[in-house]
Inverse folding.
């Protein structure tokens, strides 16, 4: 049984769609302390002996298993940096669900900086889902600065789905990945900022060996006076293929800086980037209004669909 | 019943006033199939948009079933049962065909119901239901989905702006069958179609000919059709070609 209060459980629902403890391995962290942990025959979770965080070790050949490691903060003024290292063996097929929810009703800033490192073994397949969410009406800010590092062995693949839809005042996200032969990385990032929030997302993906590929796509919406910066660089060092795309809707007085970048250090690197920023098209609003929606409802539908 | 009373619409072009719709007064009775035809630039699309509230008339009033809707928004008119199928439908990144049909229906509908609407417009439902309404769809596919969104709504007045354009590979018979199904005896609907196509004119209860922003003819199919067949107001593809040759000569 988890030792969590109603607010913490609400945050867990938002970030991990969980109503109770999940099946498989998990580690729940609330206000800086582990409040529930379960390991399985194939997945071991151990706290780090030095510093804060956990090591997750997944045995070779582990298939159709999952690890949930949600973090919630509901105490105003709490700041923490947590190191989580994932060692995924060879020939695995696993789902990893992370995410952080902050509820800040106080005056002081709350901050969680999660440093996640993934070592993905040969021919393993990983699906990683991470959601960030903030709530609470205090003046204290909700700050999340995640760092993700991915090291992929030959033939491995990783699909990362990262979403931050509401309530995080400031975020600086940094993701680096290094891929070996035939490794494949797919990133789908969804971001919405509102109020005076700022969000910076930086990617540096190195395709180091032949046959490696990366597809990094960000969809974002900037509302009110919020600011976003998307800075994604794919580096092709071998016969590889890379694609990066940033597609944004800008509203109100929002601001967006999109910097998709490519660096080819091999004549056989095939790299493509795309970026588009624009407001919601008037014809889209009109079409949905002819179906009976108000202008505000039409806007919500368009944004929800875009960020789905 | 839809009544247009002295409706005008002026646009501004290069600082000058351009009269697009000029003092039109019309009555469209209930449960009729009306085709509005006439040369390009004659004000047909604008007239349909004025009825749906997409453009606002600069003079006159529009009355729908006794209620003056002149000052009403697009949304309010939609809620009164006025539907509109665009000539060039818009695309939505992220929204799926199912999302759009659910919005159109105005209530949570089951997938099999949504599939019925797609089958109605000749699309294989399982191939389309979860597709995004984005640039991956062809113009013709988009056009059929557009028509499906109007079928999914329980409208009392359906306006179709050149529904046949872009769906050449799909037989006209299907389009005509859609109109017939929509109107079916118990459905009590008025359908207004903007079209040049003789085959659509052929099934009209009533034809309105619009040119230079004015109604120049209005009456039953029997009265109007013989006058306009083979003229620039109603043209088949072959006629257009021969007419084009004459003009070029």
């Amino acid at each position: 049984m988890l030792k969590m209060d109603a607010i913490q459980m609400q945050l867990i629902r938002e970030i991990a769609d969980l109503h109770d403890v999940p099946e498989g391995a998990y580690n729940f962290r609330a206000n800086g302390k582990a409040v529930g942990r379960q390991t399985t025959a194939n997945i071991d979770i151990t706290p780090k002996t030095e510093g804060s965080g956990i090591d997750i070790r997944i045995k070779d050949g582990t298939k159709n298993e999952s690890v949930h490691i949600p973090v919630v903060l509901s105490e105003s003024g709490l700041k923490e940096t947590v190191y989580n290292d994932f060692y995924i063996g060879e020939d695995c097929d696993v789902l990893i669900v992370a995410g952080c929810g902050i509820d800040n009703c106080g005056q002081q800033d709350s901050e969680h900086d999660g440093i996640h490192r993934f070592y993905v073994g040969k021919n393993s397949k990983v699906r990683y889902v991470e959601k960030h969410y903030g709530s609470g009406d205090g003046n204290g800010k909700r700050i999340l600065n995640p760092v993700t590092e991915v090291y992929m062995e030959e033939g491995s693949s990783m699909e990362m789905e990262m979403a931050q839809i509401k309530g995080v005042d400031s975020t600086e996200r940094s993701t680096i990945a290094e891929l070996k032969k035939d490794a494949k990385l797919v990133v789908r990032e969804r971001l919405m900022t509102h109020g005076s929030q700022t969000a910076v997302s930086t990617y540096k993906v190195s395709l180091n060996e032949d046959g490696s590929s990366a597809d990094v796509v960000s969809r974002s919406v900037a509302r009110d006076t919020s600011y976003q910066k998307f800075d994604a660089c794919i580096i092709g060092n071998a016969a590889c293929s890379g694609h990066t795309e940033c597609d944004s809707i800008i509203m109100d007085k929002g601001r967006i800086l999109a910097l998709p970048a490519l660096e080819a250090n091999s004549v056989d690197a095939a790299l493509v980037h795309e970026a588009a920023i624009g407001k919601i098209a008037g014809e889209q609003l009109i079409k949905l209004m002819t179906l009976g929606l108000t202008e505000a409802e039409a806007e919500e539908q368009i944004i929800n669909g875009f960020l789905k | 019943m839809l009544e247009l009373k002295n409706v005008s619409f002026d646009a501004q072009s290069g600082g000058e006033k351009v009269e697009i719709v000029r003092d039109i007064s019309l009555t469209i009775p209930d449960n009729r199939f009306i085709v509005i035809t006439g040369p390009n630039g004659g004000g047909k699309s604008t007239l349909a948009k004025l009825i749906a509230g997409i453009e606002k008339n600069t003079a006159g009033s529009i009355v729908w079933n006794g209620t003056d809707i002149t000052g009403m928004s697009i949304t309010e008119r939609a809620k009164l049962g006025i539907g509109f199928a665009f000539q060039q439908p818009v695309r939505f990144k992220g929204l799926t065909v199912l999302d759009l049909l659910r919005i159109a229906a105005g209530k949570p509908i089951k997938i099999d119901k949504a599939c019925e609407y797609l089958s109605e417009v000749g699309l294989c439902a399982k191939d389309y239901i979860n597709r995004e309404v984005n640039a991956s769809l062809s113009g013709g596919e988009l056009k059929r989905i557009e028509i499906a969104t109007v079928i999914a709504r329980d409208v009392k007045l359906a306006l179709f702006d050149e529904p046949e354009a872009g769906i050449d590979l799909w037989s006209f018979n299907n389009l005509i069958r859609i109109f017939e199904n929509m109107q079916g005896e118990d459905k009590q609907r008025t359908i207004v179609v903007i079209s040049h196509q003789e085959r659509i004119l052929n099934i009209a209860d009533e034809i309105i000919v619009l040119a230079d922003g004015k109604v120049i003819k209005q009456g039953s199919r029997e009265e109007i059709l013989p006058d306009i067949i083979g003229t620039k107001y109603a043209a088949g593809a072959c006629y257009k070609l021969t007419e084009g040759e004459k003009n070029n000569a």
Residues 237-249 of chain B have pLDDT under 50 and may be disordered. Chain B touches chain A through 23 residues (CB under 8 Å).
